[in-house]
Amino acid sequence: MAKRTAEPRPESGISPRQPCPCGSGKRYKACHGRAGGAADVIVTRPFEGLAAECELVALREFVPSATAKLPVREGREVTLATVLPMAAAALMRVDEKAFVGLQVQTRSGDISRDLARALEWVQSAEAGTSLPVVGPETAEAGTVPNRLQDLVDVDAKLDVELHEDFSWWIPGDTEPTGEVALSLERANAAIMPTERLNAEGVESAYWVDAGEKAHLRWVRPEPEEKLLAALARLSARGELALGEDSRYAGSFRAHGLLVPVWDLDREKHAREWEQPAAELGTRLAEALESLDSEPLNAAERRSRDGLRGRQITVR
Predict the structure, then answer these.
(1) 207: Cβ–Cβ under 8 A, 6 or more apart, which residues?
(2) Alpha helix (H) ranges present in the chain?
(3) What whole-number percentage of the chain has pLDDT above 90?
(4) Under 8 Å between Cβ of 152 and 72
(5) Got the DSSP string for 130-191?
(6) Which pLDDT score, from 0 to 100, does residue 6 have?
(7) pLDDT tens-digit readout, 221-261
(8) Mean pLDDT of 261-278
């Protein structure tokens, strides 16, 4: 029987059979190591490995107007923004303040890679310029483009600042005109009042006034099946709500994470839900821990099946 010859390592030093460093889950030879360049693969959990993963999902998917300083490892200071004028991928304001946008149209399957390209662009951008969109790179085989995880401190969390409108798009001494003025008007008109809950043990949880009712959207870091099991345990005990005037509405998947949603009485201020959310967080943590020694019983399994039927996938 003929012996199989070992596949040569490319100049990058990565074995063709190793997982591609881009995070796609494919082997290197089928992704960034293939002839003709990288495959445009879908990365279902693009922010994995970042301490700010849950916050990034929230800012990408449903927080209207917010900014946060990006913990870049080197280079100029850059502000991460939910939305930029004309939904640009990056912006260098006339006052030379640099921004990278999250809620943008992308043309590749890896948001983390797109954000890295926008971050690299803005590091050398001229004042008053913007990057409309980012797409698949055209790197040669044997090279792996950066991802956000390569350019920022992965252990740093984000200090998110919410805004009532998008006036921060424009420097204080500048009057918006033309397309920017129109984009600003439209963006301000679409904002739903949103607040981030600040309580011990409550992170990446946002209250939003949707009109007829208010909601709590809470991005969770746990694996989906384990989180569903813990939610089911609380549901079977009648402990899944945040108290009176609230009910568990369901959940949606976004970028590899599960986001449970509760309907709330909109007559109550967001701050009135902080303590109930903290108490729910404690119950949920206990339920998650109990799963290691106590499997779900029949009633809890039925509850889990019901919760699974109320899930949707956003991205």
Answers:
(1) 194, 195, 196, 197, 214, 215, 216, 264, 270, 273
(2) 53-61, 111-123, 148-151, 178-190, 224-236, 274-290, 298-308
(3) 71
(4) yes
(5) EE--B----PPTT-----HHHHB-TTPPP--EE-SSSGGGS-TT----HHHHHHHHHHHHHP
(6) 45
(7) 999 999 999 999 999 999 999 998 999 999 999 999 999 99
(8) 96
